[in-house]
Amino acid sequence: EKSGGPLQGQPGRPGTAGGPGAASNNNDDFCITASNLLADIASLDSTQVPPSMVAQYITPTIVALCKHSSFRVRRAAVQALPRVIGGSSMADVQENLMPCFIRLSKDEVYRVRKSVGECLVDMSRSLMLLPASLVDMGKPLSGPKRSKQIESFRLTLQEMRRNSLIPICTRLLQDTNKVVRHGMMQFLGPFIASFYPLEGEGYSQDDENGIMYMLGGKEAENSVGGLGVQFFPHANGMVSRLNPDNISAAVAKKTKAPTPRSELPIDSVEFLESHLPSFLEKCHNDAMSLFRILQHRIKHPVPAKDITAVKQSLMPSYVNLSSINTGDSNVDAEMRVYCAYSLPGIILLLGQSGWEDSLKACFFQLITGSSISAQSKGEAALVPLPVKRCLASSFHTVCNMLGPSITKTTLEEKANKLDLLTIFEVNFLGDADETVRLNVIRNLPSFLSLLSFSKRSNYLPVLYEIIKGDTMLASKRTNVLNPILLNWRQRDMIAQILPNLISLYRADQVRQYLWPIVKILLSDAVNIVRENVEWSIPILLRCYEVGNCSFGGEGDVLHASKFSTEACDEVFLFLKDTLLNNSSPRSAARSSAGAFSKRQSYCRILSAVALILRLNIGAKSANGDTRDDTDGNAPPQHPFYTLSSVEYTHLHQLLKKTLLPSALLMKEDKVTNVRLALAKCLRVMPLDIRDRGKVGVVLRTLEDEIQTWEGGGGQDMDSEVPTTKKIQMSGMSLAGSTSTNGDPKAVRVSGNIDMQGTTGNSMETSSKGSLTGDSRRNRAS
Description:
The protein is an all-alpha fold. It has 36 helices and 2 strands. The chain starts with a helix and ends with a strand.
């Protein structure tokens, strides 16, 4: 800087390789690199690089780079400003950094102005992350004094954001260069969403009540269900960029590597939870994330001045994106995708009033391709496929943010098909694109939970026909290499949502509409679909508890008892006929080929029933039926953790007296993998079943046999066995591969999907472990 060369853009010494122009480019590259490095240094923790050091060494250099003759250097300096602000003092921001940003927004080179628009989101967030760090840099404050000073800083910076950044945005939206205008349109939605407060109670990044804590990085995002994509566009990367040191520490403190199953005690809760499928955890985490966001908005309302400024200055341009007409169809489609992507975050910011004012019209314009007035006249345009996919993914979040009242419609809206239920049925579930249907099916229980029980019940027959219709379960797209398997992911998604879907309805409705779907999926040609739908059986049997079958009326107790008995017997007889007696709706040739894998499936179903009992030991509530509960303030419940005491007793009796006897007959099954599956099943049984009577004898016999297998059969089990012998066993997956240690007695079932989506071939072994003649032939599971 003192030499005046690189910062002033002076050419290098003549005679150097490449000439004066090459030397000048090298100087520019040095300045660009310096901008990034200085921004990284400024964003370090204030204990390492205090604001006084930033003001003395970094700010003057960044300001000089903002005045550089090369537009490439000025553009790099613009991109560095948000990170420098994160480590600066209030005076430095007001007197030096913000004036530089405003000046560069009027730069003569359009590329610099475009970069200013791209940095608006980071500038907005960095200003609001500053108050807590400014307070913590001085004398340590706590309690009311700290909150009061943070609030003072926050109000000042909010006013600066309204008075400086919003005018910059509106000016760039009206820029004479279309590249600048289109670039600002791309970031308009995220910029509006950035006005939502990310702070928690203490306005700190380490505060678990704040959104920033949940946006701490990829691992933290996955652990809470992916908040950034749905609500805070571009916020995940922004938080890490603006303060990587603090955020990494918060994430390290929050996340911890999971303990391998083989190292967990067999009767620990962690060991039992490790058996639950990942899709159940993901579904519950997504629901909890949505619940936490909505609770955060109630506790931390958006400032009224911010909402007013956004509505007056930015919302007209944003709503216009849904119907923009630039003359280029590709650009128009791209802008509509940007609009749809940011919609949940903007609805979260503006709430119900914003929806009624302009966002409702924007939503219907995006999904139907025409305005509400044009739609009533039957006019419609082609909707870009990415827009439909994006809106299908966020439809349940939009409905949850607006509340149950959003599903109430007028007669006029229903007649014109402008109510959300019709949009859900026609534009999402009935769409020709499989990805659109998958995106909305994935969150179907979340949407249905918003409906009143009567409306939810009236909608169930419609939903049943759609799921069983030509676009879903009845759709059998085939080709020569992959018969009946091309659309298995759609059926698998239905299998994954069934546990939560069953929990929303009464027993008679479940038996009439959902149980037939379960039966279809239990006989599916694809192994992963069958495995995932097995987790619905415990929830189904729980639903058939006598108390849940009581619907009111004279003689209701006797009717409920009879209904419960008949429904449970129907489930057991179907499982017995399909999985144990080998009488499937499919052809006999295909069914007999995978008979042993069906017996394994029966063992897995028993494991699922046993797990829901083990995870609910000590259930004390008199009645766990919450299907009529529409209280939005109640956190979402995991389907495997909400048993009442009477439901626990009901499932326990079914498992012990009805389901288990058929499984114990497999102790001498000729197929090794079936006996292995039975051993794994018995190990997760409730203790009063596992450690007593015939079950304990069978389990110990199987464990002893497994240990005699060549190479140590204990590797096929999960962890240390709680017997007097203290047999050490490590975890190994049962499905998916064939043993590679040369032991023919431990040949595994290969029934999962291969890379082409087909089911793998399987082989049976005799009770002595030798391969039979038939097993050498390929047999489809």
